[in-house]
């Protein structure tokens, strides 16, 4: 969901996990001139066609082929409960975005799937506090953003498995703790 806390959560995880990188879907938006406009005049940013998804897949696969090349070990990770000395061969890539699980070419790559949700009123309130380039036009949230979120969320619920739904209204530290502990458990399983 837009403004659900995806980027904030990803950045906080990166600070406390060893050998962790982030790829953000927002970095793959097409320029405004290449984004289609619907009959109401809304730029259709909340659809897969607004993104260079093939480039994103290439970037993810490139990281997977050589994660150590791009990995930066932060000071925070050095003091985290996962000891980097014991995890030199473990690399974590967080791929953060809003249409990740609806793109077939990515579905085989996920070890974990987290989906932040927000109720309509909270989502609209948060969205109204953000400044976008280009700016949201009047009616854009109700006419495009929210309907696309519901459409893709319904598709996800019908087609994807192993998705952990997270309530984006929960405190950030609670969400961070939940996801961090889940990742720690997964890393422990991989070491067994």
From TrEMBL:
Pathway: Cofactor biosynthesis; NAD(+) biosynthesis. GO terms for cellular component: cytosol. GO terms for molecular function: ATP binding; metal ion binding; nicotinate riboside kinase activity; ribosylnicotinamide kinase activity. It catalyses: beta-D-ribosylnicotinate + ATP = nicotinate beta-D-ribonucleotide + ADP + H(+); beta-nicotinamide D-riboside + ATP = beta-nicotinamide D-ribonucleotide + ADP + H(+). It comes from the Eukaryota. GO terms for biological process: NAD+ metabolic process; pyridine nucleotide biosynthetic process. InterPro entries: P-loop_NTPase (IPR027417). Keywords: ATP-binding, Kinase, Magnesium, Metal-binding, Nucleotide-binding, Pyridine nucleotide biosynthesis, Transferase. Belongs to the uridine kinase family. NRK subfamily. This is NRK1 kinase. It comes from Nothocercus nigrocapillus.
């Amino acid at each position: 969901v837009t403004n659900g806390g995806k980027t904030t959560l990803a950045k906080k995880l990166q600070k406390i996990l060893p050998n962790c990188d982030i790829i953000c879907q927002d970095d793959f938006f097409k320029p405004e001139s290449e984004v289609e406009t619907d009959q109401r005049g809304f730029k259709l940013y909340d659809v897969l066609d607004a993104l260079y998804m093939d480039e994103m897949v290439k970037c993810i696969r490139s990281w997977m082929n050589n994660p150590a090349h791009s990995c930066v070990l932060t000071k925070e990770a050095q003091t985290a409960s996962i000891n980097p000395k014991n995890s030199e061969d473990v690399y974590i890539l967080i791929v953060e975005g809003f249409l990740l699980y609806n793109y077939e070419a990515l579905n085989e790559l996920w070890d974990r799937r987290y989906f932040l949700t927000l109720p309509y009123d909270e989502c609209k309130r948060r969205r109204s506090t953000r400044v976008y380039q280009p700016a949201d036009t009047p009616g854009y949230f109700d006419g495009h953003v929210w309907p696309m979120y519901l459409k893709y969320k319904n598709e996800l619920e019908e087609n994807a498995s192993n998705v952990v739904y997270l309530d984006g209204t929960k405190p950030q530290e609670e969400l961070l703790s939940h996801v961090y502990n889940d990742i720690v458990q997964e890393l422990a399983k991989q070491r067994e």
